[in-house]
Specification:
Layout lengths: L1 H18 L5 H26 L2 H25 L8 H17 L10 H26 L4 H20 L1 H4 L10 H17 L6 H29 L7 H29 L12 H41 L4 H28 L7 E3 L1 H13 L7 E7 L6 E3 L1 H17 L5 E12 L2 E10 L6 H4 L17 H11 L3 E7 L3 E9 L5
Helix pairs in contact: 1-2, 1-8, 1-10, 2-3, 3-4, 3-5, 5-6, 6-8, 8-9, 9-10, 11-12, 13-14, 14-16
């Protein structure tokens, strides 16, 4: 059962990588390697249960295919900056082919042939691991070195555990659970390869922890159900745990395959794979449409009397009046202007956005916004830092509206630092299951936002300022959502706030 689990996990990872939208050579190479492990472990599992020479051949084919595939994967992963080469891949493929052919010759009866066919792949794995270690030692401290260091730890543990197959030949048989450990480690390697933005170890572990929690929850539900209705012949907890792990691992690949199939058969059914919560989003869209229809009428009915009040107040002020009367008239005019600004912001929030989307360099757009921020009088005591990563993919955005978002957040940050502080703008690239994206962060060292207020910052008309309208961040959220992006905020009272914006890269035509 443990061997079967590793085989299915390998197949699930391979299928997911083959059908993912953002394929590259590293993904395809790792997918082929996982497929070889599937043939190796799957063939071994079925050869034991069916005593068939065919499955034995499948097992040997998978085992011997691992050597050239792992060299190819290592060469791509290290960007051809190691001693691994295409020539070594071809030599390994030739040796594997010779060993495979030898299965049909008398050489297969040689007493040490079985040891040779296992020691050879183990030696190639050790060679690739050495190339990875040398690559890490040659790299200066940085993100790339950290990511490879985590990968070396995972590969090293996987290689050490896989060595049990070789040790078993000398009469030492370890628990078959090492196949489960190898499956978990392969999943961790998949996370590191498929999510290069997970630079911190705790982020990788968090992803693995989520998978573990889902597995335990599924195990508990199935176990309780079987105990209640399965009778005395209920399956063991170990088998239920393994089955739950397979289900959790296989859901995303299966969903990706079905999505591609249904997209081809029913191209109009784009929302077929959305969660049921999408119906709530549809209801919210209908509410927004109703608000868009009501807002202009409401604004017109408010602006007309406001205009009359302001005109009358200005006329009265021009007459001979005492200073106290003029002060009162000025209060009326000031409040009318404030109400007019509220109406304008309400219209900006409610109106449907007409996007002027163009391929943009996000760094250039943010640099323009920063230049506007620096012209603000509030920046006198503020240190502004820019950490804009180069070579970011282009995105389809309305530059003017994105600048509006940046300015709204930046002005709020400046007002939160009346005694001075630091305002930091950052950009970076994100690689995820949904494809490449751009991350923008705006961080301040101001007074921060209280925990009970944080959940309401994007709600319309919510404000903590005495004369604030409470629509600025709501407008920012609508603009980002209209671009198909996301915006969120984290804050620690007394230490500052940080806003995160995520925008998908432009689709390649």
């Amino acid at each position: 059962m443990e061997v079967f689990t590793l085989a299915v996990v390998s197949l699930a990872i391979a299928v997911f990588l083959f059908f993912t939208k953002r394929q590259n050579r590293i993904h395809l190479s790792f997918a082929c390697l996982c497929l070889a492990i599937f043939f190796y472990k799957g063939g071994g599992f079925f050869s034991v249960h069916f005593q068939s020479g065919f499955w034995r051949m499948v097992e040997m084919f998978g085992l011997l295919a691992i050597s050239p595939l792992i060299i190819s994967f290592g060469r791509l992963l290290l960007n051809d900056q190691s001693f691994l080469s295409l020539r070594q891949t071809m030599v390994a493929a030739f040796i594997s082919l010779i060993l495979l052919v030898s299965l049909f010759t008398p050489l297969a009866n040689w007493p040490y042939w079985g040891m040779l066919i296992y020691v050879y792949p183990a030696s190639v794995v050790a060679l690739c691991y050495g190339a990875l270690i040398l690559f890490i030692r040659s790299k200066p401290a940085g993100i790339e070195r950290t990511r490879m260091l985590y990968l070396s730890i995972a590969f090293g543990m996987a290689a050490l555990i896989s060595a049990c197959d070789v040790i078993k030949l000398f009469g030492y048989d370890f628990s078959p659970l090492y196949n489960i450990f190898t499956a978990v480690l392969m999943y961790m390697i998949f996370l590191i390869v498929n999510h290069p933005q997970l630079m911190d170890l705790h982020e990788v572990m968090a992803r693995a922890l989520i998978t573990g929690v889902l597995t335990l929850c599924a195990t508990l539900v199935i176990y309780v159900f079987i105990r209640l209705f399965g009778g005395p012949s209920s399956s063991s907890l170990t088998y239920i745990l393994l089955a739950s792990f397979l289900i959790v691992i296989s859901i995303e690949p299966l969903k990706q395959v079905l999505k591609n199939i249904f997209s081809w058969i029913y191209p109009e059914s784009k929302e077929a794979f959305n969660f049921l919560y999408a119906f709530d989003q549809k209801l919210e869209r209908e509410k927004s449409m109703l608000l868009e229809e009501m807002a202009p009428v409401l604004a017109h009915e408010i602006r007309n009397p406001l205009g009359s009040i302001k005109g009358a107040a200005q006329y009265l002020r021009s007459e001979v009046m005492t200073d106290e009367d003029k002060r009162l008239i000025d209060v009326i005019i000031e409040e009318v202007n404030r109400l007019n600004r509220v109406v304008n912001q309400f219209l900006s929030y409610a109106k449907p956005y007409s996007l002027n989307l163009k391929l943009q360099d996000v760094n250039a757009v943010i640099a323009k916004a920063i230049s506007i921020v620096k012209a603000n009088d509030l920046t006198e005591k503020i240190v502004i830092e820019e950490e804009l990563r180069p070579e970011l993919p282009l995105v389809n955005v309305d530059a003017e509206q994105l600048i509006q978002v940046i300015l709204n957040i930046a002005v709020n940050a400046l007002e939160a630092m009346p005694e001075g502080g630091k305002l930091t703008f950052r950009t970076r690239r994100i690689d995820s299951d949904q494809g490449e994206a751009i991350a923008i962060s705006i961080r301040d060292t101001g007074k921060g936002i209280k925990k009970d207020e944080l959940r309401n910052v994007f709600k319309p008309f919510f404000t903590t300022r005495e004369r604030g309208v409470g629509l600025g961040l709501s407008i920012c959220q609508r603009i980002i959502k209209s671009h198909g992006g996301h915006i969120r905020v984290k804050s620690i009272p007394g230490q500052g706030s940080i806003f995160y914006i995520r925008l998908q890269r432009a689709a390649l035509s």
